[in-house]
Specification:
997 residues; alpha/beta; Rossmann fold; 5 domains; seven-stranded parallel beta sheet; elongated
Length: 997
């Protein structure tokens, strides 16, 4: 058998190869030009040439005759263009999809008459089937029809597998008819041409005296046949492999396929004469940013040679944190990046994806409000400034405020322009470029023009960014280059798209596919500085120090992309080889063995709420196991996630000036139950809301209080005209009239614009049923004699009480009497006869589960409670606790107090006649118990204690809360952090809670 040569990984493969090559050929000899050296990758060939140049420099020779150095892809390109009489240009895979779909439309009867509908429907299947065809082409096979396709596939896929041979042959024929080519097609074409006898007379073979195939492994059948052709036709050839003991199975299989025996190269050629095992260090952490930061600690301030250090990045999404951390170094180092970055995370790409989403989710002229705002709030927009110095940030702020006021989930562009008419001119231009132009696209060329209009719109901003020396600027320039060179031409020039009519939705799908699949290249000097590489780019290269990030399952080895048409089962059916992880094991081990020092970082996160489960790669486990077999302890380091524990403040300190402001606020403000409840719930929120007067952000869509407001207004509409009258609900409730009022009011609230269709349908059904059930509940009570009559004393009735309170005055540092206005508005104030007369202060609640914190134990707690003489956080929490953890008991008691203090305005009975005064909630959606009261008492003596409390003692409690607002040292944070979960002031609160002194 013919011999192959093995070079050990730990001898420095390419430099050892250089020594061997120079022993065979002189760079002074012109014949060296006819030696062709073929490498698996372009980069390995580039490094080889650099090492040849270094040898020349050692001899102080400036120039020489170098061999022809090709990557395998360049080698196939050279053969294809020289051996084929009329070579076809390569086309993007997306255009081959259209060729495939054209074949389908002729062969199968799955299609409708409208061609573009067929393309839309089967576009994604076309992409998957192209991968199947490529697999056959790499194997040099024509697929056979499958009589029994695997179960579980869709009907279209089964039909195609049944006619796979005919479909593939027609597809290949149409590709040639169109004059298209692509890599696997060229590969197979070269193999076929090389079988012809006369091909060896081609001029290209006159340029080759000797051929070297260097570092190949896991060859496909067509590749094997091409390499064997050169082995047979040329007397002088070399097959060089990188290997180690024991010989990797992937190398043994390659030798067998090429019919080669092997021997190890003589140690005389070794670049490294002293062979040592690498020092391997393992680092475990839970945080990717900490992983990057720790890895960069091994990078010196400067590097002389490109093969000193490599950082290998198997997970491309870790590239940006890495380069931004490098950019932040005090002494920036020169960097060369070989891997391509997925464009999905680029800001402009995310912006375009939101434009696509807006069109996909548009319903006629209605756009989803959140997506609309996401587009306009993009940093590129916010950086714009219009004539007259008007910033777009100001415009979008006003638009957002208006949209939050109306709360519509979907909005038309005309409605937005009407909301802020003073900015109509600016908005019409923006709406045209970013929205209206996309609504009625008819041709791909129009689509491309729309994209260009967007770039032109942002051109002034992009020009500024391009001038910046930053990675963001580099990414932007490269992204725009990808748009201009890879995406625009598809919509403008190519056979299947130019000037054709497709639906806008299909063109958006094509753009979305391209924006997901394309990658951004980086330009750098591959022979200078710190090398940052993808894992496969390291093939055949050797570095003194190797740093690999994310040595985790799913990244090393990588999780293969899933194609349902190329499962292992289907590959067996089709006779396509299955490569598992042997190749990745080989590449990993040869990289490790070629280095002197290796640093392996991996993330270990057990299943949790905030991060996905991540585990170390099987490569890590294997390395540790091998070290332990040799009775060597692995060098392991745990990189803990350092938390800087900032002292949590109890609250925001109050200065004397603030305390004076608080007294002034109390003297001049109507003290509502919201005012007091806010303070009891969270002093910091009180500070933001009432002292700083920060506005709470209004939610877009249905807000928590919308349904409550609706219920309040509905009952107000029903009962307002009955104020002062004594009625029976049986006479009030005329179902058709009441439900008509409900329908009209529902429409006026525009709930259909604030909810999705299903929620709106269900909510309206619930509202109708709730109203019906509540009135029937009252009518049943009347018919049973439990309610004899109801007199409406007030609907949305204001209850105000101006009274003297003994408050602390910071200016005089003493307590003084001040007039304070307590204020409330009760939803429903009624006089009801139920055997005895009852005066009821009621509030409507939409939540059926809310309770007014009632019961004997709670009443006793209120009576027995003693106010503290301290004004600290604990005393405040104790006061809040007597009203329930959610303070649901405060409102009815507060309104009770306001009513009782001026009861003579409402109660017409004389003092000797016993009446019951009670307060509570009406929860109509609680069908079984829609009325809930604070006090459920039966004895007159018990009621007397209640009346006495609200006559003489409840004011003391209110007075104490007001004094706490003034006197306490801080605006205290809540005792229960759950209160903070949905707070509108989370962002500013964090600063006060942890950061401010």
């Amino acid at each position: 058998m013919n011999q192959a040569l093995f070079i050990p990984s730990n001898s420095h493969f390419l430099k050892t190869l250089t020594n061997f090559f120079l022993d065979k050929h002189s760079l002074d000899d012109i014949k060296t030009l006819k030696v062709w050296c073929i490498f698996p990758t372009k980069r390995s060939g580039l490094y080889f040439k650099n090492y040849l140049k270094e040898k020349l420099k050692l001899k102080k020779i400036e120039a020489g005759f170098f061999p022809r150095i090709y990557s395998f892809e360049e080698f196939i390109e050279a053969l294809y263009t020289n051996l084929i009489s009329s070579p076809f240009p390569q086309v993007p895979s997306i255009l081959r999809v259209f060729v495939f779909l054209e074949v389908l439309s002729k062969r199968l009867n799955f299609f409708s008459k409208k061609e573009e509908d067929n393309f839309e429907k089967y576009f994604n299947w076309g992409i998957k089937f192209l991968e199947v065809f490529e697999e056959f082409e790499k194997e040099g096979k024509i697929p056979e029809n499958l009589l029994y396709p695997p179960e579980g596939l869709p009907e279209l896929a089964k039909k195609l597998f049944e006619e796979l041979k005919t479909t593939y042959l027609e597809f290949s024929s149409l590709i040639e008819e169109k004059g298209f080519s692509y890599y696997s097609y060229r590969l197979k074409k070269v193999r076929d041409v090389l079988k012809e006898e006369k091909v060896f007379n081609n001029n290209i073979f006159n340029e080759i005296n000797e051929v070297w195939f260097i570092g190949f492994a896991a060859l496909r059948r067509v590749e094997v046949e091409i390499l064997k052709y050169f082995k047979e036709k040329f007397k002088s050839y070399f097959f060089i492999f990188e290997a180690y003991e024991p010989i990797p199975s992937i190398i043994r299989d390659t030798l067998k396929a090429l019919e080669l025996d092997y021997k190890w190269i003589s140690p005389d050629y070794y670049e490294k004469k002293e062979i040592k095992d690498p020092q391997i260090y393992f680092y475990e952490t839970t945080d990717p940013h900490l992983e990057v930061k720790s890895a960069l600690e091994f990078i010196p301030e400067s590097l002389k040679n490109p093969d000193e250090i490599v950082i290998v990045v198997p997970n491309p999404f870790n590239l940006l944190p890495l380069i931004y951390t490098l950019e932040g170094k005090e002494n920036p180092i020169e960097v060369n990046i070989t891997l391509q970055y997925p464009i999905t995370k680029i800001p402009l790409n995310q912006f375009l994806k939101n434009l696509i989403r807006a069109q996909k989710e548009r319903e006629e002229k209605f756009y989803p409000t959140q997506v609309y705002l996401k587009i306009l709030k993009h940093p590129y927009f916010l950086a714009l400034e219009f004539e007259g110095g008007i910033s777009f940030q100001k415009i979008i702020k006003e638009i957002e405020d208006e949209l939050r006021k109306i709360g519509y989930l979907k909005i038309t562009l005309d409605e937005v322009e009407n909301l802020v008419p003073k900015y109509r001119d600016y908005l019409e231009k923006i709406h045209k470029i970013f929205f209206r132009n996309w609504e009625s696209i008819k041709t791909p060329f129009e689509f491309s023009e729309n994209l260009k209009n967007i770039l032109n719109f942002f051109e002034p901003l992009f020009e500024k960014l391009k001038d910046e020396d930053s990675w963001h600027s580099i990414l932007l320039r490269n992204y725009i280059h990808v748009l201009e060179t890879k995406i625009f031409p598809i919509f403008e020039e190519e056979t299947y798209l130019k000037d054709k009519s497709f639906s806008g939705s299909f063109l958006l799908e094509i753009l979305e596919y391209l924006l997901k699949e394309e990658k951004i290249p980086f330009i750098g000097d591959p022979l200078k500085g710190l090398q940052i590489m993808g894992f496969l780019e390291t093939r055949l290269l050797s570095f003194k120090k190797v740093i690999i990030l994310d040595v985790n399952e799913g990244f090393l080895p990588p999780a293969p992309s899933f194609n349902p048409l190329l499962t292992d089962e289907i590959k067996i059916y089709l006779g396509i080889p299955i490569f598992r992880n042997e190749l990745w094991v080989y590449y990993f081990e040869r990289l490790i063995k070629s280095a002197e020092e290796v640093h392996l970082f991996y993330i270990f996160v057990e299943k949790g709420k905030t991060q996905e489960f991540r585990e170390p790669s099987r490569f890590i486990q294997k390395l540790k196991w091998e070290l332990e077999k040799e009775e060597k302890k692995p060098n392991e380091k745990l990189i803990p996630l350092y938390f800087e524990i900032l002292p949590e403040k109890e609250g925001i300190p109050k200065t004397k000036e603030i305390k004076q402001s608080l007294l002034d606020l109390i003297k001049t403000t109507e003290i509502s139950r919201y005012f007091l409840e806010t303070y009891l719930r969270c002093g910091v929120k009180f500070y933001f809301k009432y002292l700083l007067k920060l506005k709470e952000e209004t939610k877009i869509g249905l807000r928590s209080f919308d349904i409550g407001n609706f219920i309040h207004e509905f009952f107000e509409n029903i009962f307002r005209e009955l104020e002062g009258k004594e009625v029976l609900m049986e006479n009030v409730y005329k179902e058709n009239e009441v439900l008509e009022k409900l329908e009209n009011l529902w429409l006026s609230y525009k709930f259909e614009r604030k909810m999705d269709a299903l929620s709106h349908f269900l909510s309206k059904k619930i509202a109708v049923e709730t109203i019906r059930k509540y009135f029937n509940y009252l009518i049943d009570k009347e018919r049973a004699g439990e309610i004899k009559s109801t007199k409406i004393l007030g609907v949305e009735r204001s209850l105000k009480l101006l009274t003297e309170c003994n408050l602390f005055d910071p200016s005089y540092e003493e307590f003084r009497n001040f007039k304070v206005l307590f204020s409330g508005r009760t939803d429903f104030l009624i006089k009801r006869k139920e055997g005895i007369t009852k005066y009821l202060i009621l509030d409507f609640k939409s939540n059926p589960d809310i309770r007014p914190y009632s019961g004997k134990e709670k009443i006793d707690k209120m009576f027995s409670f003693s106010l503290s003489d301290k004004f600290d956080n604990l005393s405040l929490y104790e006061v809040a606790d007597i009203f329930g953890s959610d303070l649901s008991g405060f409102q009815p008691r507060f309104y009770y107090y306001l009513f009782y203090q001026q009861k003579e305005k409402f109660i017409t009975e004389n003092d000797k006649e016993f009446v019951v005064i009670n307060a509570g909630f009406i929860t109509p959606s609680d069908f079984k118990n829609p009325e809930k009261f604070v006090f459920n008492l039966s004895k007159r003596g018990e009621w007397a204690k209640i009346y006495d409390y609200f006559k003489n003692r409840f004011k003391n409690l209110l007075e104490w809360i007001l004094n706490h607002i003034i006197i306490s040292d801080k605006f205290y944070l809540p005792a229960d952090d759950n209160i903070c979960k949905y707070c509108e002031y989370k962002a500013p609160c964090k600063n006060y809670r942890y950061l401010l002194e």
